[in-house]
Amino acid sequence: MESAEIRRRWLRFFEERGHTVVPSASLIADDPTLLLVPAGMVPFKPYFLGEVKPPFDRATSVQKCVRTPDIDEVGKTTRHGTFFQMCGNFSFGDYFKEGAITYAWELLTSSQADGGYGLEPEKLWITVYEKDDEAERIWRDVVGVPAERIQRLGMGPNFWSMGVPGPCGPCSEINYDRGPEFGEEGGPAVNDERYVEIWNLVFMQYERGPGHGKDGFDILGDLPAQNIDTGLGLERLAMILQGVQNMYETDTLRVVIDIATALTGVHYGHAHDSDVSLRVVADHMRTAVMLIGDGVTPGNEGRGYVLRRIMRRAIRNMRMLGADRPVVAELVDVVIGTMGEQYPELLNDRKRIESVALAEESRFLKTLSAGTNILDTAVTETKSKGGQVLSGDQAFLLHDTWGFPIDLTLEMASEQGLSVDEDGFRRLMKEQRDRAKADAQKKKTGHADLSAYREVADRSGATEFTGYLHDH
Ligand code: ATP
Ligand code: MG
Ligand code: MG
Ligand code: MG
Fold first, then answer.
1. 17 burial via Cβ count (<10 Å: 0-12, 13-18, 19+)
2. Cα distance between residue 26 and residue 339, in whole Å
3. Average pLDDT over the chain, rounded to whole?
4. Does residue 211 carry a pLDDT above 80?
5. What angle (nearest 5°) sits at the alpha carbon of residue 202, between those of residues 50 and 170?
6. How far is residue 288's CA from residue 306's CA, in Å, rounded to a whole number?
7. Res 283 pLDDT > 60
8. Using CB atoms within 10 A of its CB, is residue 214 exposed (0-12), middle (13-18) or buried (19+)?
9. Which DSSP helix (H) or strand (E) runs through 23?
10. Most CB atoms closer than 10 Å: which of 22, 160, 335, 444?
11. Pocket residues: Cβ below 6 A from ligand 1
12. What is the rounded average pLDDT of the residues 226-251?
């Protein structure tokens, strides 16, 4: 079943059951606490928080999502993309646990001829929050899932909360058993690659208070209205329904891998490392196109930096696969073609998306050609002395003179088996800023003093995409 059909069936199923179909919101969240939308519930947040009265009791959507914290999983696990689509159904004070659970089961297991997805019930495993007897009872007694395929998990995976004070409650997840070729048995509690999580049902049930109770925080009591928020990963379901090994081989991503192969001559399935690179390219180029489509432009802060980092990783992986000329035009073109069916606005915006992506590519190729030799020399020097750590001085030089962001240095060093003295690097960065600050004060030029902001950006580190602030 094609991705577009999975999406259609989702929306039709819930529409037929009284849900209002709400189009995907932009990836740029209308929410100051979020850089990008990571989940389907975000556009409905004001309803869940009770800030705005919802115009409907039930809604459904297929929401574009970006999760930058998953970036290091991409290509390595079978199931994490930086961009994915979350199919959701939502109840605002209407149906609760039993409604959400029975809808989910019906849609997943009813036959494809009847409009469902036709999954075999024996392959579905359920997790519930360890204290949620009610959810377990519904799965066992109402739906009829055998007790041995229902597992209880702790707060980490199976309890949800948002803000203080705010709503919170247990989750229940549906996982699909992909069989022994994906490893040992025992259910999702022991093996999350074999028993892949496909659908999370969140039961917003309690009000969370400011204190710390025995469960990690205070639960003040029941919410005045109980809500449902669910999310199913479209790409994960596509992976199962299309009978492929991982989400990058599903219809909308596989065509991107094939273009990467055409550009590099490296075939998918040839070797582990090159397969990881091909998957990273497919994932990241799709994310880049979707971000640019929603109006993000490459930059050194915030969303712009997310886009920049993702594009640069895609380009670098293409070079590791052997590409020695620009590749972005072809990759953008195929992504727009394959995603355009579900997001026609991409087709109308093709020219602009291409020109933003191409400009970033040419900027990055200049940076790379200047810095790569310097990095290689530093790596060789370090190794010849028997060292395993690139010094903070070298990382600082690469940054300051050659425009290499620290996370690029970290990645390229680690590909050659070295780590980097990040503390040393940050100390030098701080010294440089302090000098600049002192100079600025001496001169009293009247320019805005950005050093406080820079300190914050620097402290929060590379993994949070707050970014480097110096680029060539
Ligand atoms: P996982 O444990 O596999 O990382 P999660 O628990 O973080 O997933 P949820 O926050 O529960 O995911 O999101 C709801 C659904 O969205 C998941 O059940 C999954 O199907 C899908 N999903 C989450 N993260 C990703 C991702 N990075 N790529 C593709 N699909 C995802
Ligand atoms: Mg996750
Ligand atoms: Mg999970
Ligand atoms: Mg989950």
1. middle
2. 15
3. 91
4. no
5. 100
6. 9
7. yes
8. exposed
9. none
10. 335
11. 67, 70, 79-81, 84, 86, 197-200, 231-233, 235-236
12. 97
CA–CA gap between residue 51 and residue 167 (Å, rounded): 12
The reported pTM is 0.87
For ligand 2, the distance from its centroid to the CA atom of residue 16, given in whole angstroms, is 30
The CA-based angle 351-354-355, given to 5 degrees, is 85
Sign of CA dihedral 348, 353, 355, 358: negative
Q: Which atom of ligand 1 is nearest to the CA of 247?
A: 29
Amino acid of residue 293? G
| Domain architecture of the chain: domains with CATH | 3-241 (3.30.930.10), 250-464 (no CATH)
Q: Find tokens 């929401």 and name the residue.
A: 63
Q: In this model, does residue 467 exceed pLDDT 80? A: no
Q: What torsion, rounded to 10 degrees, do the Cα atoms 9, 12, 16, 19 define?
A: 120
H/E segment holding residue 420: strand 419-420
In which residue are the tokens 């990040």 written? 422
Q: Which of 27, 42, 86 to mutate to test the pocket of ligand 1 (most atoms within 8 A of CB)?
A: 86
Q: Name the 3-class secondary structure at 152.
A: strand
What's at 9, amino acid-wise? Answer: R
Tokens of 203: 């039961």
Beta strand spans in 183-259 (E): 195-208, 219-233
The secondary structure of residue 110, as a DSSP letter, is: S
**Residue 220 phi, psi dihedral angles, 5° rounding:** -80, -30
Using a 10 angstrom Cβ sphere, with 0-12 exposed, 13-18 middle and 19 or more buried, the burial of residue 208 is: buried
Within the chain, what is the greatest distance between any pair of CA atoms?
Answer: 77
Residues with CB under 5 A from ligand 4 (ion): 200
pLDDT digits (tens, 9 = 90+) for 8-61: 999 999 999 999 999 999 999 888 889 999 999 999 999 998 889 999 999 999
Strand pairing class (219-233; 20-21): unpaired
In 30-154, alpha helices (H): 45-48, 97-109, 133-137
Q: Which residues contact 113 (CB under 8 A, 6 or more apart)?
A: none
Residue bearing the CA closest to ligand 1, atom 11: 200
Q: d(Cα 27, Cα 45) in Å, to the nearest integer?
A: 15
The answer, yes or no, to whether the previous bond of 165 is cis (omega within 30 of 0) is yes
